[in-house]
Structure formats: C-alpha cells, structure tokens
C-alpha cells in the first residue's frame, strides 16, 4: 500500500505544524460559544445551536483548504513532488495520499465541534450521525479546493488566496446572516456556489429532513468532482513542464 | 547497456533545449554530464526519469523504453533532484523510510534499509533530527541517500554538490566515490574538477548538444590540451554549435 506511506507522511507534516492545526480546531469552538451567548441575549433563529453548528463546522473546513493547499504548494517548491513523480506512485495514489490525512482532521473537527455543541445544549439524537456523514462528504469539497490552489500556486500565494477564500466562502455560506436578507444578485451568486449548499445539507440532516439533503448534496458533489478533476489534470500538466 | 540514447531531443516551441543526444552508458559506469547553466542537463535527466516526454528520439534504460514502459523503468531508477528534495517536517529516518515504502518496501524492510543508508551516509546520529533543521550539506546528503534507498539500478544525481562549501563537497565526493561500480550513476555538474575526479567518462554538453565524449584522458589527447578546463572553454565558446 504505497499511498498509505504517502498519506502518513502528509499526516506528520500537518500535525507537526500544530499552531495552524490548533487554530483550525480552536477557532470554531470559540465562535460557537460567542454566538450562542449572543443568541441568549437577542434571540435570533439563525444562531440557535442547531442552525449555528452546521455553519460553523463547514466554516472550520476552510482550514482544510489551507492545510492541503499549503502542503501541496510547499511540496512543489521543495521539489519533493519531483521525487514522488519519479517513484512508481500513481497519480490517483498521491491524490488519495493528500486527501486521507485531511479527511481525518475533518473528522476530528466534526467531533470536537459537536461535543462543544452538546455542551451548548444541542440535542443528541440519531440525526447527528447522519449530519456527521453529510459533513464528511462536504469536507471533500474544501479539500479539493485546497488541492486546486496548491496545484496552481506556491505555498506563499496560497496563504494570501486563503484570506480571500475564507472570507468569500463564509459570507456566501448563509451561516452568519441569512442570504435572503440581502437577496438579489448576492443571493443568486451564493446559490450558484457550493458553500451555502454544504451548510444547507448539513442543517437538513441535523433536523432530520432527509429528503431535503439530496439536492444541496448534488451541488456539492458536482463542484467537488469538477475541482478534483481540474486539480489532477493541472497537476499532471505542471509536472510535465 | 544500462542507458541507450538515440537522437534524444526536447524542444519548447521553437527552442531546442536538448539536441539529438546519442549516447551509451554501460552498467556500473559513473558518467558525468558536464555543462554550464542552461546546457540542457536537467532536461535530459527529466526525460530519462520519465518526467518529461521527449520531442523526438529514443531513450532505453536497462532494456525498457522510458516513453512506452515508464512503470517498469520507474521501479529501477531513482533521482536526486537539483534542488534538495526532502520532507522538511520529517526526521532523517522518517524521510528514508518514506521513500523506501513508496517504492514498495514494507515497514520492517524500510526500517532496515533506512538503517543501512544512515550507516553508509554517516547519518546515524542525526536519525531523529528534523530534515529542515539540517545544514545544506547534510540535507543534500540525505537527499542522495533517499535516492539510493530504493536500490536503483540507475541513479541520477542532478548537480549534487551545487551550493555546498568546499568541505561538504569533498565529503560528498567521498561518499559518491563508494558507489563506483555498484550502481550506474549519471551525474550532472558544472564543476570540472567534480567530473574529472569522480567520473569514468565525461560528456560535455553545450546548448543542448553533446560536444565531446570520453574519459578525461581521452578528451585531453583528442583535443591536444592539458586541462579539462581548456577543453571545456574551447567547446563551449560563444558561437560554438
Ligand atoms: N518548461 C520550459 N519551457 C521553456 N524553456 C525551458 C523549460 N525548461 C527549461 N527550459 C530551458 O531549457 C534550457 C536548459 O535547461 P536545463 O535543462 O535546466 O539546463 P541545465 O540543467 O543544464 O542548467 C534552458 O535555457 C532553460 O531556460
Ligand atoms: Mg540543471
């Protein structure tokens, strides 16, 4: 299992840079806690924990974009990737090798965030398990964005682009304010992008409205596939030039 | 024959970077490809290690064509890229085991191979040091050990001593010296003394063309000059085609 060796190496690279990792896990906890306090003082439907938690967890996935983009960008510049391309490792194996460790981090983020949400009075029922599955699926979207950025940019550029990415994906996700409050073009753009769909599908899962999950999930799926494919093709091209 | 090149060429649009390279290298030979910056050395190595597709011509490594059977060739070769290619957050030992494993070794085999390499490259007391904290010379040494750990039949070393101080260079030479006869080595360099003291045969490359080929002594008597430096200068003069 060659890709296991590669993914365990990637796992080590990410975990040994603990500051960003802690940030990626700690920040959503703080946010959830603060917004719940706010909700206590001025009741807003949007910030009730069952609406808030899905949005915040999806928001925390933007750090997966950062981790994967930085790692890939760094590997490219250090010509470690040249070494990997010379090896018998197949292109599917290295993409899986990058994805697995981030997937594990996503799982940790989800668990930590849900524990926090329970402390903040989220009710535990089977819907949580469905939501976890939907979230793991949504995590792939953010990982694919990272691989896309890492393929086309250096690790330094990824850092800058991440600032734009995290802002636009957060603003357009419907987590912090409901999109129909602004409406118009803004809402149209948001619904043409996958971020709000990722949050929506998770909210439906948590509410137990399973039949509603399919459509937003399809949006996420299509985006994820397209982005993965562009990343892989771009990646192969980059290495051939 | 370990390596067989027939009119191997690479061009980017109009620009010919490697021009009709024809060459045979015997098994166990230590071959130096000597040339200034931009001569086409790295491009040649990339074609031979299945990273770049030749524009025309043929390259056969140990009986297998690099274009038509890259997967067979890849298992039998390894490369130490021009820029040091190591995983920065992994220790010396982990870096070595990582490469052994992506070439198919299991955990136990990888551990043993890494130990052997660390002995050979005198890296044992640095086994637990993170690669990014090593000095440039030691990083390069690790990078070469990582290329050797897969037991390649043909080893490519792209400017292995570039940027090293005199002492680190000498130490690396001593290590490379030990490889003679055991593995076919193709080393690129722009240091004349490096080619002269290490290589069985030297090929002088200029503007993508092989200008001369032979042992240092053969080249000297052929050109009726006393030093490799004079030969090199006369073959790589402005306007020489
Ligand atoms: N992808 C590319 N596109 C266009 N020109 C390139 C590309 N890669 C290398 N070259 C050119 O090919 C020439 C040889 O490069 P290279 O093989 O790296 O030389 P060396 O390793 O001998 O210094 C250089 O002039 C370089 O600018
Ligand atoms: Mg070069």
Automatic annotation (TrEMBL), chain A:
One of its GO terms (molecular function) is ABC-type transporter activity. It is a multi-pass membrane protein. It is found in: Membrane. Keywords: Membrane, Transmembrane, Transmembrane helix. It holds the Pfam family ABC2_membrane_3. Residues 19-238 form the ABC transmembrane type-2 domain. It comes from the Bacteria. The chain crosses the membrane at residues 21-40, 52-73, 94-120, 126-149, 161-179, 213-235. GO terms for cellular component: ATP-binding cassette (ABC) transporter complex. PROSITE patterns: ABC_TM2. This is Transport permease protein. It comes from Ornithinibacillus halotolerans. The lineage of its organism: Bacteria, Bacillati, Bacillota, Bacilli, Bacillales.
From TrEMBL, chain B:
Residues 3-232 form the ABC transporter domain. It is found in: Membrane. SMART domains: AAA. PROSITE patterns: ABC_TRANSPORTER_1 (PS00211), ABC_TRANSPORTER_2 (PS50893). Pfam families: ABC_tran (PF00005). InterPro entries: AAA+_ATPase, ABC_transporter-like_ATP-bd, ABC_transporter-like_CS, P-loop_NTPase. The keyword Oxidoreductase does not apply. It is a multi-pass membrane protein. Keywords: ATP-binding, Membrane, Nucleotide-binding, Transmembrane, Transmembrane helix, Transport. Signal peptide: none annotated. Coiled coil: none annotated. GO terms for molecular function: ATP binding; ATP hydrolysis activity. One of its GO terms (cellular component) is membrane. Its main location: membrane. It comes from the Bacteria. PANTHER family: ABC TRANSPORTER G FAMILY MEMBER 20 ISOFORM X1, ATP-BINDING CASSETTE, SUB-FAMILY H, MEMBER 1. This is ABC transporter ATP-binding protein. It comes from Ornithinibacillus halotolerans.
């Amino acid at each position: 299992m060659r890709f296991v060796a590669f993914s365990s190496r990637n796992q080590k690279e990410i975990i040994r840079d603990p500051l960003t990792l802690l940030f990626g896990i700690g920040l959503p906890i703080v946010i959830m806690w603060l917004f719940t306090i706010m909700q206590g003082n001025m009741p807003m439907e949007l910030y009730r924990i069952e609406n808030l938690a899905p949005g915040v967890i999806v928001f925390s996935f933007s750090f997966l974009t950062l981790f994967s983009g930085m790692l890939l960008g760094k590997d490219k510049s250090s010509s470690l990737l040249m070494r990997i391309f010379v090896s018998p490792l197949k292109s599917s194996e290295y993409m899986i090798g990058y994805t697995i460790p981030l997937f594990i981090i996503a799982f940790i983020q989800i668990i930590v965030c849900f524990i926090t949400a329970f402390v903040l009075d989220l009710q535990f029922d089977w819907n949580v398990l469905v939501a976890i599955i939907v979230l793991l699926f949504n995590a792939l979207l953010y990982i694919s964005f990272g691989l896309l950025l890492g393929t086309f940019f250096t690790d330094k550029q990824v850092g800058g682009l991440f600032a734009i990415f995290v802002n636009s994906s957060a603003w357009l996700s419907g987590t912090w304010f409901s999109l129909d409050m602004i409406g118009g073009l803004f809402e149209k753009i948001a619904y043409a992008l996958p971020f709000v769909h990722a949050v929506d599908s998770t909210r439906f899962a948590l509410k137990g409205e399973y039949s509603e999950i399919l459509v937003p999930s399809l949006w996420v799926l299509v985006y994820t596939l397209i982005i993965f494919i562009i990343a892989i093709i771009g990646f192969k091209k980059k290495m051939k030039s | 024959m370990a390596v067989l090149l027939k009119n191997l060429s690479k061009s980017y649009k109009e620009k010919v970077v490697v021009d009709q390279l024809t060459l045979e290298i015997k098994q166990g030979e230590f071959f130096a490809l000597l040339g200034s910056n931009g001569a086409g050395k790295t491009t040649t190595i990339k074609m031979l290690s299945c990273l770049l597709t030749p524009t025309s011509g043929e390259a056969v490594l140990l009986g297998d064509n690099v274009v038509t059977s890259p997967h067979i060739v890849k298992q039998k070769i390894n490369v130490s890229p021009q820029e040091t290619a190591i995983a920065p957050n992994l220790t010396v030992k982990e870096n070595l085991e990582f490469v052994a494993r992506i070439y198919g070794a299991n955990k136990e085999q990888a551990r043993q191979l890494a130990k052997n390499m660390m002995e050979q490259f005198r890296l044992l007391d640095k086994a637990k040091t993170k690669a990014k904290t090593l000095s440039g010379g030691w990083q390069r040494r690790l990078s070469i050990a990582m290329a050797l750990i897969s037991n390649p039949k043909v080893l490519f070393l792209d400017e292995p001593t570039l940027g090293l101080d005199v002492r680190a260079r000498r130490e690396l030479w001593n290590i490379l010296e030990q490889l003679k006869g055991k593995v076919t080595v193709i080393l690129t360099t722009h240091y004349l003394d490096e080619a002269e003291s290490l290589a069985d045969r030297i090929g002088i490359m200029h503007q993508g063309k092989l200008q001369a080929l032979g042992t240092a002594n053969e080249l000297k008597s052929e050109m009726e000059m006393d030093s490799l430096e004079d030969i090199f200068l006369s073959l790589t003069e402005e306007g020489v085609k």
